[in-house]
Amino acid sequence: MIKIQRRGDLHIIKAGSEVSGRVIMWTNLYYYRGIVIDCGCINVADEIFKAIESIGEAKAVFITHHHEDHVGAAHLFNRKQVKIYASKETTKFLKDPPAIPEYRRIVWGQPKPIEAEPVSNSITVDEVDIDVFKTPGHSPDHVIYKIGDMLFTGDLIGSLKPRIAYYDEDYLEILNSVENIVMKLNFTAVLGGHLIAAKEDIINFIRYLRTLKNRITELYNQGYTIDDITNTLLSNVPKKVLMMEAVSRGEWKRRYLVKSLLGLKSDTKESGNRGTQ
Ligand SMILES: [Zn+2]
User: Fold this and answer.
1) Range of the domain at 84
2) CA 94 to ligand 1 center in whole angstroms
3) Is residue 114 part of a domain?
4) What is the pLDDT of residues 17-34, one digit of tens each?
């Protein structure tokens, strides 16, 4: 399913596949004066491609990172010889996409191989200037794009109040990318894969994460285990968070957020529903 909103020359395209008649997770992609930023998921790739064709010509596609809910329709642009740009690290994943587990195949779909060109600094496409900034944290290959006063941030900030993390996410790196890269830029709008926010929201995001990090560290230094800390600070959370933990087979957990803010991130997902610490 696709929904399109327009703000001047910017088209916000919300895309998501329906499971049992409803969309479980929407992902935003964007079209601005011929530039497409991110590509939704493959389960709705045809709809996305047609929606963009109906808006205008796609002159280039820019991908923020390799996750399946951001690259879905890119192979269709490949077929039309539209250039696809991504970080050097992302291009490797796009060429040979990693196999994803079943629940993600149902919600988003397994990406197809995509040929993309590496981009690292600034590039101009038909008079639109696009600046590229490395912003690791959500994934190691992640970049954001700046066009005028708009920042296209992919999943660098997945939620303004994170209570859960993906096993591969590094929240200390996310903090570093947001504080030292995003906040140094001149911008008014943050246009992400799952949220749209203003500068003030990003300041509050940093404040929330810093406070959470301090409370986690305090409890850890008092001898609390990771599970104790998780239960103390992250038990009163929205249902959606608990659902993600339940269905993701160990890929998303509240305790990963705690570990990562302590600098104890592990690179592999933990087996079973609970960790050992
Ligand atoms: Zn992602």
Assistant:
1) 2-156
2) 13
3) yes
4) 888 888 888 999 999 999
What's the Cα-to-Cα distance from 257 to each of 2, 146, 152, 262, rounded to whole Å? 31, 28, 24, 9
- DSSP lists the bridge partners of residue 19 as 22
Dump pLDDT digits (tens) for 251-277: 999 999 999 999 997 766 776 444 333
Ligand 1: centre distance to CA 216 (Å) = 25
Domain count, the chain: 1
Residue 219 forms part of a structural domain: no
Q: Yes or no: say if 25 and 16 are a contact pair by the CB < 8 Å rule.
A: yes
Cα 36 to its chain centre, rounded Å, is 16
Distance 222 CA to ligand 1 centre (A): 34
- Compute how many other C-beta atoms are within 10 angstroms of the C-beta atom of residue 45: 23
Distance 195 CA to ligand 1 centre (A): 12
Q: How far is ligand 1, taken at its centre, from the CA of residue 71, in Å?
A: 10
